[in-house]
Amino acid sequence: MTSLNICSGADTWGDVKLDKHPQSPSVTKFNFNTNLKLPYANSTFSEIRMHQCIQFMIYPQELLKECFRVLKPRGTIDVTTANASSLRYFFKPLGSAYSNKNKWSAEKIYQLNNLYTLKASLTEAGFKIKEAKYYAFLSAGINVIGQR
Predict the structure, then answer these.
(1) 88 to 92, 98, 115: CA distances (angstroms)
(2) What residues make up the domain containing 62?
(3) In degrees, to the nearest 5, what angle opens at C-alpha 143 toward C-alphas 133 and 11?
(4) How much is the pLDDT for 138?
(5) For the domain that residue 111 is a member of, what is the CATH number?
(6) I need a surface site. Which of 13, 17, 20, 74 has the fewest CB within 10 A?
């Protein structure tokens, strides 16, 4: 099984790992906001994981369409992001992301999703929704698993 981890950061899951700011030598540098095409052939991967990164994409729908293209038939995509319906987003400056060091990140948030909008985005990109759920304290996060 070949897996792709998009916005992997320091996460070690996946056979292929991409990130705008690689935190490990095993991670390939790739900026999704300037490269709208993933550098892989059609139907390359069996699994794609995209955790806590879709909100930082200027063109999130294009990235999801690219994920659909590089995913094998019956392959799965696992997308996790912050829940826009969570109260914590009402207290943040628009366009800023909160880092785990209690400082405002330089990364800009371009899109916030709730469970409905994330499911709709995956469906529009061609995926069938297998599972959709809230997680974390006060439903601060959402997770949607789609299948090609």
Answers:
(1) 7, 10, 16
(2) 3-147
(3) 145
(4) 56
(5) 3.40.50.150
(6) 74
